[in-house]
Amino acid sequence: MFRNPLTIGVDIGHHSIKAVVLRQKKSGLELVAFAEVVLPAPVLNKQHSVNAPALLSAMRKLKKALPYGARQAVLALPDSAVISKVVQLDSHLTEDESLFAVEQAISASSPFPVEELRLDFSPMTRETFGEQSQTHPVQVYATRKETVDSRVAVMRQARLEPTVMELQTHVLVWLEQYLAEQQGIEGDWGIVDIGHTITAIGIKAPAGTVYRREVSFGGEAMEQIDNTFSGSGDSTARAEQFTKLLADNLKRQIQLYRTTYPRSALEGVWLSGDGQNLILEEMLARMLSLSVRKIHPLSGFQRSAKLDIDWEEEVYGQYAVAAGLAIRGASA
Fold first, then answer.
1. Which of 11, 26, 181, 278 has the fewest C-beta atoms lying within 10 Å of its C-beta?
2. In this structure, are strands 72-77 and 161-167 parallel, antiparallel, or unpaired?
3. What tens digit of pLDDT does each residue of 182-233 get?
4. Is 172 strand, coil or helix?
5. Which regions span the lipid bilayer (predicted)?
């Protein structure tokens, strides 16, 4: 049934590259392998393109830790590298006419010529506009060809075959939805991924879209907090200060979500990323008036016998994006 049941989620970060390998089985998804290679220097530039030679070297090291038969890879793009736009199209356009209309709409808002962009678009749910409407909303995504092509080229040189390119926040929502289903958690939950410099917020919206936001705050703020405490050993005070700063950054974004979707009450948020270990859950929950849980991105899968022997009860929060990518690929 599955020509290649192994799917690799590859997360290209600023400081490391992480991979999670899943196998689709009748009883669910099985975790086959996971690995991380620390980068001696960042491979991403400010334009979101990659340093191909450096990335290829790291990918070859990473691939040695993965199963021999794993080929299909799923990659993520930073949200800031992608233009997201909803356009209204005539319901009776042909496929070619729709593409032309989308290109015209994107060219009006993109700083790059449409010839330099990769486009993806799909109709939004009909619940939002009715079956008989003369027009319908289409969700459009666009990014520079170089942003996509540079990643794809490196994967192919590493003898992997990229099958899906997904937005990073969408991937986190895939992971949140999967784990919520596994654990029987109901209601609307969001996910907050605390990176080194950026914190991403993703919430599955009622219309089937994803409410996405990024704020300029991350684990690097702890360095400033450490300087403020001038060598004091009070780790709790440090964590309290970091948690307060995160809460201040999240409150406005959560309020914007509630204003946009007043009928969808947010029950809580999952925390992911390296920075989740810097947070005091109970304190953050009080400040946001929401339930807060730290996500264990690898905990929702069956495990191979080899991994089960060596398994340690760690959070492995840094694998959230890679795990979400692998889930996305296995579900394609």
1. 26
2. parallel
3. 888 888 899 999 988 889 999 988 767 788 888 889 888 887 887 776 655 6
4. helix
5. none
Q: Which pLDDT does position 275 carry in this prediction?
A: 86
d(Cα 112, Cα 107) in Å, to the nearest integer? 8
Please give the radius of gyration of the chain, using alpha carbons only, rounded to the nearest integer.
21
Alpha helices (H) in 108-234, listed in sequence order: 145-157, 168-183, 221-229
Q: Strand 6-12 and strand 72-77: pairing?
A: parallel
Characterize the bridge pairing of strands 199-204 and 161-167: unpaired
The vertex-243 CA angle with 237 and 249, nearest 5°, equals: 140
CA dist list (Å): 182 to 24, 30, 92, 175, 270: 15, 13, 41, 11, 14
Q: How far apart are CA 142 and CA 81, in angstroms?
A: 9
Q: What is the pTM of this model?
A: 0.87
Residue the block writes with tokens 């991937």: 171
Report the candidate in 326, 327, 269, 262 with the shortest Cα–Cα distance to residue 66: 326
Cβ pair 171, 113 in contact under 8 A? no
Q: Rounded to 10 degrees, what is the CA torsion of 258, 260, 264, 267?
A: -30
Distance between CA atoms of 157 and 178, rounded to whole angstroms? 31
Question: How much is the mean pLDDT over the chain?
Answer: 86
- The distance from CA 224 to its chain's CA centroid, rounded to whole angstroms, is 27
- Please, are residues 218 and 271 in contact by the beta-carbon 8 Å criterion? no
Distance in Å from the first CA to the final CA of the chain? 14
In 86-166, alpha helices (H): 95-107, 145-157
Query: pLDDT-based confidence at 295, cuts 50/70/90?
Result: confident
Q: Taking Cα atoms as reference points, which of 82, 65, 63 lies closest to residue 154?
A: 63
Measured CA distances, 87 to 80, 106, 123, 292 (Å): 19, 9, 10, 35
Sheet containing 266-272: which strands, arranged edge to edge? 210-215, 199-204, 188-194, 266-272, 291-294
Q: Are 166 and 328 in contact (CB under 8 A)?
A: yes
